[in-house]
Design goal:
Layout: H1 2-23, E1 34-35, E2 38-40, H2 48-57, E3 61-67, E4 71-78, E5 87-95, E6 100-107, E7 123-129, E8 135-137
């Protein structure tokens, strides 16, 4: 009888210990600390090296960051679209305790809008302050 009781207490102890350890896991904190200021870059103002990378990657959807000695560039490409007339809006760009959160949205051409019939490759490049923080793309 004593062995069963001791065995039961050990199981209870390890169960409680497991719950405590699981509860101590680090969670991803997405609480906004502050919005980040940014500039949507014109094609002419994008660094040449970044332009070349975008040209290679644009054939598929992609998300990336690029930095020089002064600024951070955050890029989202939506891959090939059947026509022109697409636009990309920045929904959010903000700093959390652990990351930068970047959220964009692709909008298609309006009904009745005149668009080119050629394949387009919508890409947005924003420039913001240089932070050594990972970027979460949403």
């Amino acid at each position: 009888m004593k062995k069963i009781t001791m065995k039961w207490w050990k199981m209870v102890f390890f169960l409680i210990l497991s719950c405590v350890l699981v509860g101590c896991g680090k969670t991803r904190d997405t609480a906004k600390i502050r919005d980040l200021e940014f500039t949507v870059m014109d094609q002419e103002r994008i660094p040449e090296e970044l332009k070349a990378i975008i040209e290679e990657k644009k054939v598929q959807p992609f998300k990336m960051t690029y930095s020089d000695e002064e600024k951070l560039y955050i890029v989202t490409g939506y891959g090939p679209q059947e026509t022109g007339g697409y636009s990309i809006q920045v929904k959010e760009l903000y700093l959390t305790e652990n990351a930068i959160v970047f959220d964009t949205e692709l909008s298609g051409p309006e009904k009745g809008e005149t668009v080119t019939k050629e394949t387009s490759y919508p890409v947005i490049v924003i420039q913001t302050e240089l932070l050594e923080t990972p970027v979460i793309f949403q």
